[in-house]
Amino acid sequence: MVTVKKSKLLINVNAVPNGVTKISKELDANDLDLGHLEFCSPIKVDLELTKNANNVRVTGTVDFCLKLICVNCLEEFERQFSEKVYQEYIRVAAKKIPFVEQLEEVDFIREYYSQDFFDLSPLIHDIIILAIPLAPWCRVDCKGIE
Ligand SMILES: [Zn+2]
Questions:
Q1: For 121, which of 33, 103, 142, 146 is 20 to 30 Å away at the CA?
Q2: How far apart are CA 68 and CA 52, in angstroms?
């Protein structure tokens, strides 16, 4: 898929002051290449960027509401999600971007970049995808198809 529009979560590192910067955005499914999902309201992203030299730690929450189909009764229902964000962006020279052969635990939250920009969209995209249950139930005591 070719995306020509600019990411709404592109961070210009040079424009981020040292210390803590808060970012709040409301996004829709297409902003995050999630057009195949049905959201009941805008996706709310509340982040804190903590910059220390050229490294930026990103923490916060992604709040969203999804329309899902219950695997038990096949009815559509809505579920609210609030997911944590924790990621560090480490700036390195392009040729020094480490090739990670074996994932260490810390590598799951570490991302390397070499330009003046990094994009938070893939991170938020993945957080949403991973939060969705594979076999959602509308409620714990769903009676199924009656
Ligand atoms: Zn159900």
A1: 103
A2: 40
C-alpha 66 – ligand 1 centre gap (Å): 15
10 contacts 31 by C-beta, under 8 angstroms: no
Cα–Cα distance for residue pair 55/6, rounded to 1 Å: 23
Distance 62 CA to ligand 1 centre (A): 25
Q: Domain spans of the chain?
A: 10-131
Only one residue has tokens 């002051």, namely 17
Residue 134 alpha carbon to ligand 1 centre in Å: 14
Residue 3: predicted pLDDT:
47
pTM: 0.85
Residues with CB under 5 A from ligand 1 (ion): 70, 72-73, 138, 142
User: In order along the chain (146 residues), what is the average pLDDT of each group of 10 residues?
Assistant: 71 93 95 95 97 92 97 96 94 71 60 87 95 94 89
